Amino acid sequence: MKLDFVPCQLSDLEHLISVSKMTFVHAFKEQNNPDDFNTYIDQAFSREQLHTELTNPNTEFYFVYLKGQLVAYFKLNQSDAQSDIRRNDSMELERIYVLKAFQGKQLGKKILDWVKSKVSKAHKSFLWLGVWEKNQRAIKFYERYGFYKFGTHPYFIGSDEQTDWLMRLDIKS
C-alpha cells in the first residue's frame, strides 16, 4: 500500500478547514460538553487560525492520499511553532487524524514511519506529541510504536480544562 504525502498549500485552506473539523468532530464530539466543544471548533479551526498556522514557516500540514483518495492529514511543528517544548532538536506531531472510513487499515503506522524518517533527516533527536489522557486507544497505539510518556500539559476544549499526556519517541540518527 503506497501512500502519497502532499504538503498543504495556502490554496488548500478551505479543504484543510473542512478535513480538520470533520476528523476532530468524529474523534471527540461525543466525549465533550457541546457548548465547550463548539467553541473550540470555531476557534481552533477558524479560517484565520488555520491561515496563521499554514503560513508559519515552522509548521507543515500534510494531506495523505491512497490511490488518489484523501485518507488522513497531520501537522508538524518545529522550533517556536511547537506548542510546549521549543527545542531545536525536537519536532512536534500536533495533529494526526485518519478519516473514519480508513481507520483500522494500518495507515497510522505508515504515516508515523514517514514522519519518523522526516524527523531523522532533519537531524532531530526526538518526536513528541500530546494525546488526551482519556484516549486510551491512541495512547496504546503510540506506546506500541515506541513512544513513552514524559509529562502532561493542560488542553482546553472551550472552558473545559483537560489533560494531555506528552509522549516522546527518541530518534536514532
Provide a compact summary of the structure:
The protein is an alpha+beta fold and 173 residues long. The chain has helices at residues 13-28, 34-44, 47-54, 107-121, 136-145, and strands spanning 3-7, 59-66, 69-78, 90-98, 126-132, 148-157, 160-170. It is built from 5 helices and 7 strands.
Main structural class: alpha+beta
Major beta-sheet overview: 7 strands, mixed
Q: Going across the biggest sheet, name each strand in turn.
A: 1-2-3-4-5-7-6
The ordered H/E elements are EHHHEEEHEHEE
CATH homologous superfamily descriptor:
Gcn5-related N-acetyltransferase (GNAT)
What gap, in angstroms, lies between the N and C termini?
A: 26 Å
Structure explained in plain terms:
With 173 residues, the chain is α+β, with helices and mostly antiparallel strands. It has one domain: Aminopeptidase (3-Layer(aba) Sandwich). Helix content is 35%, strand content 35%. It is built from five helices and seven strands, in the order βαααβββαβαββ. It has a seven-stranded mixed beta sheet, sandwiched between helices. β2 and β3 (69-78) form a beta hairpin. α1 crosses α3 (47-54). The longest helix has 16 residues, at 13-28. The protein is globular and about 45 Å long. This is GNAT family N-acetyltransferase. Keywords: Acyltransferase, Transferase.
Write the layout of secondary structure elements.
Elements (H helix, E strand, L loop, with lengths): L2 E5 L5 H16 L5 H11 L2 H8 L4 E8 L2 E10 L11 E9 L8 H15 L4 E7 L3 H10 L2 E10 L2 E11 L3
Helix pairs in contact: 1-3
Keywords: Acyltransferase, Transferase
InterPro entries: Acyl_CoA_acyltransferase, GNAT_dom, YpeA/RimI_acetyltransf
Protein name: GNAT family N-acetyltransferase
